[in-house]
């Protein structure tokens, strides 16, 4: 009954206040009793899942939060409310169903009913321990298409045509040629695409010209920028940048041409070692989460922030370890319907005693990362299997570790992930709520694997299977002509993909 009242309140507020997709500023016009909402927080209704613009104020132990949407604030004392991509998701604290209310004035994504998942609910998977299943083939298979390259971009790696494979009805084009190993990307509240150029120490924006995007430098002089997130604090929007050794934020105004007033809020992230990229996400609790990979293939770390996800306040204060045993959790992002933190992990190398074993274990992982949990590395792998090669601790330790939510083919090197929950649905309706993961590809497997984008099927808030979505960057047994890094869901429902080998930014669209 309480959840029904929330939905009715949201519907009434939306009808009364309307929505303007070009306005990022918000004003609290109506607030449910007993809840304090953050007013005048810049939140746009056409924002990618990679953009965190939640203005929620949580209460203790009650699962209560209020989030501002464009022109409207809605809250309830019995539900957690968050805003992503122009939709307000209400996850009932005591009900088994979360309700999504679209607020976009454009074609709204169809509402998806997702069974609510209680905090720290079991994660596990139904696959046997050991090697993981390979990616499935989507219904109807994949169709080979020619990569569409505008004449102005037919140079270098794209002077000659390339073939890629996608499900029927999809097309792919080269949208822009970037520089300096592009990695992760995010859409700003006003709908601009930002991409980190890690090798060049820059963050760039793409000015859309229809078929292509013009690269423009927004911030430079950074140290290995990687993860990006937009997040509002006290009415001020910021772009947060996770660099190799620190977290920096820039105040942001709609249409801002350059980043200025750089502020270092975490000056001392662990640096160096084998996994140097740093990723960032903001949760519905308004906390900042930083993932730092291990310094080695397999070892016991001296810095507890390595092979872990660490939680901070929005200003970088109050550091604490959120979860451990995550060897190299490159992509992290909160799943809007459940408010849980997801991540994709690169597992260890050289575990087996033969080439065949090394090729197939341990699985890469999709993890649902929970507070206070240990995910196994360096002592365990797969479904709580003891790593006898490393030999520290003992097998009993593994019984209390969290297995992957979904195991994936070994050495695929999953990096970025994003959820398909755009403001405007472009892909077929059954993509709603699923995830995309970019496989960078193996460096020591024979034959090689990866170098593709896969679709992760999600049911009741849990990943259940994965299948090929965009392939063809790997030719033959071991030749990569490109290596995908991150999928980025756009507000209009298209999908961008970065490639740090060709410095490319691709755009995938659905024509039906």
Task: Give a verbal description of the structure.
With 512 residues, this protein is mainly β. 5% of the residues lie in helices and 37% in strands. It has three helices and 36 strands. The protein has helices spanning 2-17, 355-360, 395-398; strands at residues 66-69, 72-75, 79-84, 87-92, 97-102, 114-115, 142-146, 163-167, 170-177, 182-187, 193-197, 202-208, 213-219, 227-233, 236-242, 247-252, 263-266, 278-282, 288-292, 308-312, 320-324, 329-335, 340-345, 364-369, 380-381, 385-386, 406-408, 414-419, 435-439, 452-459, 462-470, 474-475, 479-480, 484-489, 495-499, 504-510. A four-stranded antiparallel beta sheet has the order 3-4-5-6. A hairpin with a 2-residue loop joins strand 3 and strand 4 (87-92). It is globular and about 60 Å long. 55% of the residues are buried. Residues 1-113 have low confidence and may be disordered.
Q: Can you count the helices?
A: 3
Sum up the overall morphology in one term: globular
The portion of residues forming beta strands comes to: 35-45%
Output mean pLDDT. Answer: 83
What composes the largest sheet? 4 strands, antiparallel
Ranges where pLDDT stays below 50 over 5 or more residues in a row are 1-113
Distance between the termini: 40 Å
Q: What structural class do helix, strand and pairing data support? A: mainly beta
Query: Could you give the count of β-strands?
Result: 36
The spatial strand order of the largest sheet comes to 3-4-5-6
Task: Throw out a few tags for this protein.
512 residues, disordered N terminus, globular, four-stranded antiparallel beta sheet, mainly beta
């Amino acid at each position: 009954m309480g959840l029904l009242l929330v939905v009715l309140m949201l519907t009434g507020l939306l009808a009364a206040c309307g929505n303007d997709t070009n306005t990022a500023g918000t004003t609290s016009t109506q607030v449910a009793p007993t809840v304090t909402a953050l007013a005048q927080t810049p939140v746009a209704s056409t924002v990618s899942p990679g953009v965190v613009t939640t203005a929620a104020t949580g209460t203790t132990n009650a699962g209560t939060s209020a989030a501002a949407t464009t022109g409207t604030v809605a809250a309830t004392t019995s539900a957690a409310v968050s805003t992503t991509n122009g939709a307000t998701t209400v996850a009932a604290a005591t009900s088994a169903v979360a309700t999504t209310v679209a607020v976009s004035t454009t074609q709204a994504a169809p509402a998806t009913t997702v069974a609510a998942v209680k905090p720290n609910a079991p994660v596990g998977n139904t696959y046997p321990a050991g090697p993981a299943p390979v990616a499935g083939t989507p219904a109807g298979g994949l169709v080979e298409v020619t990569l569409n390259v505008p004449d102005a971009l037919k140079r270098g790696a794209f002077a000659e045509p390339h073939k890629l494979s996608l499900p029927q009805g999809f097309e792919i084009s080269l949208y822009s040629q970037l520089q300096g190993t592009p990695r992760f990307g995010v859409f700003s509240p006003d709908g601009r695409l930002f991409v980190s150029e890690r090798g060049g120490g820059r963050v760039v924006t793409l000015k859309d010209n229809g078929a292509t995007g013009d690269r423009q430098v927004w911030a430079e002089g950074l140290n290995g920028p990687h993860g990006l997130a937009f997040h509002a604090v006290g009415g001020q929007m910021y772009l947060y940048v996770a660099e190799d050794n620190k977290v920096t934020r820039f105040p942001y105004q709609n249409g801002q041409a350059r980043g200025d007033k750089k502020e270092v809020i975490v000056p001392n992230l662990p640096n160096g070692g084998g996994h140097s990229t740093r990723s960032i996400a903001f949760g519905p609790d308004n906390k900042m989460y930083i993932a730092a990979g291990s310094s080695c293939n397999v070892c016991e770390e001296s810095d507890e922030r390595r092979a872990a996800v660490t939680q901070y306040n929005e200003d970088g204060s109050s550091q604490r370890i959120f979860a451990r045993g995550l060897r190299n959790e490159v992509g992290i992002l909160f799943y809007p319907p459940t408010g849980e933190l997801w991540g994709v992990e690169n597992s260890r190398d050289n575990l087996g005693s033969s080439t065949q074993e090394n090729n197939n274990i341990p699985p890469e992982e999709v993890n649902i990362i929970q507070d206070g949990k240990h995910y196994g590395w360096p002592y365990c792998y797969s479904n709580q299997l003891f790593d006898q090669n490393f030999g520290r601790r003992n097998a009993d330790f593994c019984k209390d570790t969290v297995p992957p939510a979904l195991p994936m083919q070994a050495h695929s090197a999953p990096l970025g992930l994003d959820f398909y929950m755009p403001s405007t649905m472009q892909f077929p309706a059954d993509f709603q709520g699923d995830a995309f993961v970019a496989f960078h590809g193996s460096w020591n497997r024979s034959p090689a694997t990866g170098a593709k984008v896969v679709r992760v099927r999600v049911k009741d808030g849990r990943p259940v299977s994965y299948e090929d979505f965009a392939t063809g960057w790997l030719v033959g047994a071991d030749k990569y002509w490109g290596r995908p890094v991150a999928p980025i869901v756009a507000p209009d429902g298209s999908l961008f993909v970065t490639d740090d080998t060709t410095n490319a930014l691709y755009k995938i669209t659905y024509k039906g």
